[in-house]
Design brief:
The protein contains 11 helices and 15 strands. It is of the alpha/beta class and 373 residues long. The N terminus is likely disordered.
């Protein structure tokens, strides 16, 4: 087994400490606790935290109560030391958020977008949005320090290459190197992923922090998005599962009705055309039932622990969709095998779609905290 080079190892250890401090919140952790949880020596922890402190990422959080010896100094993450921007690039709308290192949204904007106008026009809108949300409260002070930008876009796409695929109904996007082009415009690293994967990241990492969504040891989950399209993001093995070609989660184009209505993907009877067709007719209960049948297929295949529902259609009638999916699952699965079904961002129903932009920002932060995303 080959050894790791020193810079890589140093970055890994810094990420471990930053991740622990993020999870500890404002209360912070002592150096001895950090050493115990990471397996690093106290001397190594002291050196690393000194570097992080010099970079403004870590600060003192007071002192712990004395247990007989000298009170321990506690350290905390400095949320405002760095930021990330998340962009949700939808077919008819763009939403951008800036989050601090705890994942808290500190700036946001939304506006119309014509996805069909093509990639170059969309990049112009994205660049403007990123610069706008990256501007600090004091405009004269200039932009804030960004870790990077996460972009969540309709699939298919190649997450690793940062290149768009043949988006259903928009063939002009195929092969467009969105990550490279946007990086050249904004000057910071860009992560490109499917909107459904960003939704899974937002739900999996939990609102406000990594790991918050997994109290109780949640293992496998799925985020199902109902908006201008229908798709799913998979959370397996503690992170987003994308598959060998970034193609995992093409949930909307499973065939539920042979010889059903034509779908824009070229198939017939897909879950997407059936579900969105029912939405267009105003029959939300039928749309929820169709969605539930697709979800039940996915649950039976993957045996996930939880299902999250999101997207603007769900946000408009969350009770109908949660009840509809639960009803199908209850009928098709053994009671003990049925996963919990929940909105992706808790009780804030009107912000259900926000999870995608926040998830994109979390993916941009992931490397800082040693997360694969």
């Amino acid at each position: 087994m080959g050894g790791a080079n020193l810079p890589a190892l140093r970055g890994h250890n810094e990420a471990l400490l930053l991740d622990l401090l993020r999870g500890a919140g404002q209360a912070g952790l002592g150096r001895s606790e950090l050493a115990a949880r990471t397996g690093l020596t106290p001397q190594a922890v002291s050196k690393i935290t000194a570097r992080l402190g010099a970079e403004g990422l870590v600060a003192e959080a007071g002192r712990a109560a004395s247990t007989g010896g000298k009170p321990r100094t506690l350290l905390r993450l400095v949320p405002e030391a760095r930021y990330a921007v998340g962009v949700h690039l939808d077919r008819d709308e763009l939403r951008a958020v800036r989050v601090d290192l705890t994942g808290r949204v500190v700036a946001e904007l939304a506006g119309p977008l014509d996805f069909g106008a093509g990639p170059e026009a969309a990049v112009e809108v994205m660049e403007t949005a990123v610069r706008e949300v990256a501007r600090g409260a004091d405009a004269a002070a200039g932009p804030v320090a960004l870790v990077g930008v996460g972009v969540a876009a309709p699939g298919p796409l190649d997450h690793w290459a940062g290149v768009m695929g043949r988006v259903t109904g928009f063939p002009e996007w195929e092969g467009f190197a969105l990550r490279e082009v946007l990086e050249g415009r904004v000057g910071v690293p860009v992560v490109l992923d499917k909107d459904t994967n960003a939704g899974a990241a937002a739900a999996g990492f939990g609102a406000g922090g990594f790991g918050a969504g997994f109290a109780g040891g949640l293992g496998a989950a799925v985020y199902v998005h109902v908006g201008t399209g229908l798709g799913a993001g998979l959370w397996l093995g503690g992170g987003v599962y994308r598959g060998a070609r970034s193609a995992a989660g093409e949930f909307g184009h499973q065939v539920l009705r042979l010889d059903g209505p034509a779908c824009r993907c070229g198939g017939r009877g897909c879950a997407e055309v059936l579900c969105l067709g029912a939405v267009a007719r105003g029959d939300l209960r039928e749309a929820a039932r169709i969605l539930g049948e697709g979800v039940a297929n996915l649950v039976a295949l993957l045996d996930v622990d939880r299902v999250w529902l999101g997207g603007r259609v769900v946000a408009a009638a969350p009770e109908v969709f949660v009840a509809g999916v639960r009803g199908v699952l209850a009928g098709r699965l053994a009671p003990r095998a049925a996963p919990r079904v929940a909105p992706p961002v808790g009780p804030v129903v009107e912000l259900a779609e926000v999870g995608v932009a926040e998830g994109a920002a979390e993916l941009a932060l992931a490397s800082l905290f040693g997360r694969a995303g």
